[in-house]
Amino acid sequence: MGDPTRISYLPLPDRDDVPDGVARLWEKSQEAFGFVPNVFRAQAVNGEQFLAWWGYFNLLVNKEGHLSNADRELLAVVVSSVNRCTYCEISHGAALRAFTDDAVRADLVASNWRQADLPDREAAMCAYAEKLTLHPAEVTEGDLEPLRAVGLDDHQIVELVQVVGMFNLTNRVSTALGFVPNPEYHQMGRP
Description:
By secondary structure, the protein is mostly helical. The protein has 9 helices and no strands. The protein is globular, with a radius of gyration of 17 Å. The two termini are about 30 Å apart. The mean pLDDT is about 95.
């Protein structure tokens, strides 16, 4: 087996090799979480590109938006599960557990959202996220109707599509470069 401390297929940059904005983000993460997410270290190989990704990711996932934090993390976990992205499934599974206070349901969503006994609104969002992830060329205007039927408005639908798109991008980067989730994620949001 490989090096258990390795978190990416690529060598990681040192503090002196990254832009100041990356170093500040690492410091803020250490203060807030007690660790630096491995994705922050691994993607910083190209520091300016990482910061551009982070700006959009942060806007979609961490700021006040049209969907709740739990909704966005639900979408993140479903997309990551469908894509079999270990890093995002584990890290966003931790966030979903924390936002919902329901570790069992979050774990079920990560395995198979259909078995998680989700309310109609959440199930419609998951079904759309799965279709957009697996069959983007087959998505039609008619696929929006189930979302509207459960009360999502146009702002929420656009945000849903953007979150699904962001996680498809992030999953591909994380998987292609072998990002390993931080061990801390496995215990987060569990009783």
